[in-house]
Amino acid sequence: MKILHVGLGVRGMHWVDIVGSSGDFESVALVDPDPKACSGIATGSHLPHFDNLIEALGASDANAAIIAAPIRHHAGLAAQCLDAGLAVLIEKPLAGSLGDAAKVARAAKNSGRCAVAGQNQRFCKTERSLREMVREGLVGEVDNVRCAARRARPGTGTDLHEIEYPQLLEDAVHHFDSLRCILGSDAGRVVANAYNPPGSDYPQGAATHALIEMANGVHVQYAGSLAANDDSYTWWIEGDGGVLWSDRKRILWRKRGRRLFRPMRMTSIPPADAAAYPFEGTASLMRGLASGSAETNVADNIRTIAMIEACILSDREQREIEVGSLLAGHAIE
User: Which domain range does residue 110 map to?
Assistant: First the structure.
């Protein structure tokens, strides 16, 4: 596939490296309104660069695009590429709102092209292993899940500093997508509170607490922060047969009635997906883009975006939100 790179911030630069390391894909052009962003890559690679997408679409022979522009531009740029006949891979989040995500889904359906959400985390070893262990019944019928995701991630000088609900759109979108993947269920109801911890350099929404009831009845407690004192990420998955715990470096299991946890062997995943950040999980995303049959296709990922939207509405309106009713309001014809 011949790739048009749209947006060359930090993550956009990562995608140039990811494509360059693969023998199955070729970067053919770069798009960014900042000429310095493009020239820094083009100097060594001799790739043509454009300051607007329309010109790039007319001048390049790309058949796919990777969208890594600021979040507010994801949906519009993706729809433009789809309408021009390109497949797209959109860096997470797919869109900043459920309405914009639905526009991308409709554009993908109308064009017949593949649209992939860049939710690489669900393809990582920990998430894949937890999914398999839950589906194999290692903890029995799951009753409750606790997910705590803490990051010391300053916002000043970044695009995240300019948006509302940065923790939900930057981090929780990964965690909610992984939750759906691990449990094999969509969200049912959500109650959420977003706030700014002391010391945060974000205008608002640097932390989120949410209570989520999944459609299969599993109850989830979620706590996430971009303004924590350190970085940590833990899962606790409890069922009538035992408990799984993970800090994303290891997974421990305790059978019901036992006192001690035992370490578990993680599921094998393709070596390319097991590579360190920023490559982790991206090989599966690229395979999905090439095959046209992606696990994180836009029609699926819109359900993750619906969870984000439900949290935002719950915080704003201080009430419980039915996720299914939000999706019904944005049905893809």
Answer: 2-120
DSSP symbols for 185-240:
--EEEEEEEEE--TT--SSS-SEEEEEEEETTS-EEEEEEESEEEEEEEEEEEEET
Q: Do 129 and 116 have their domain in common? A: no
Q: What is the pTM of this model?
A: 0.96
Please return the burial class of 259, using the count of CB atoms within 10 Å of its CB with bins 0-12, 13-18 and 19+.
exposed
Whether the predicted pLDDT of 42 surpasses 60: no
Q: If you search the block for the tokens 């490559």, which residue do you land on?
A: 279
Does residue 292 fall inside a structural domain?
Answer: no
Helix (H) or strand (E) run with residue 5 in it? strand 2-6
Q: In this model, does residue 40 exceed pLDDT 80?
A: no
Examine the pLDDT at 38 and tell me if it is beyond 90.
no
Q: Do 93 and 173 touch, CB atoms closer than 8 A?
A: yes
Helix (H) or strand (E) holding 108: helix 98-111
Q: How many CA atoms lie within 13 A of 4 on its CB side?
A: 30
136 in the same domain as 261: yes
Give the DSSP H/E element, type plus range, for residue 146: strand 142-152
249 and 184, same structural domain?
Answer: yes
Q: What is the pLDDT of residues 264-291, one digit of tens each?
A: 999 999 999 999 999 999 999 999 999 9
Residue 100 lies in a domain: yes
Judge whether 304 and 176 are in contact, CB under 8 Å. yes
Distances (CA, A) of 206 to 73, 255, 315, 318: 21, 36, 13, 18
Q: Within this chain, do residues 224 and 179 fall inside the same structural domain, yes or no?
A: yes
pLDDT of 289 reads 97
Q: Is the pLDDT score of 44 beyond 60?
A: no
Pairing of strands 87-91, 64-67: parallel
Residues sharing a CB contact under 8 Å with residue 7, sequence separation 6 or more, in sequence order: 31, 32, 67, 68, 69, 70, 73, 77, 91
- In the chain, the number of structural domains is 2
What pLDDT is recorded for position 244?
98
Q: How far apart are CA 153 and CA 167, in angstroms?
A: 10
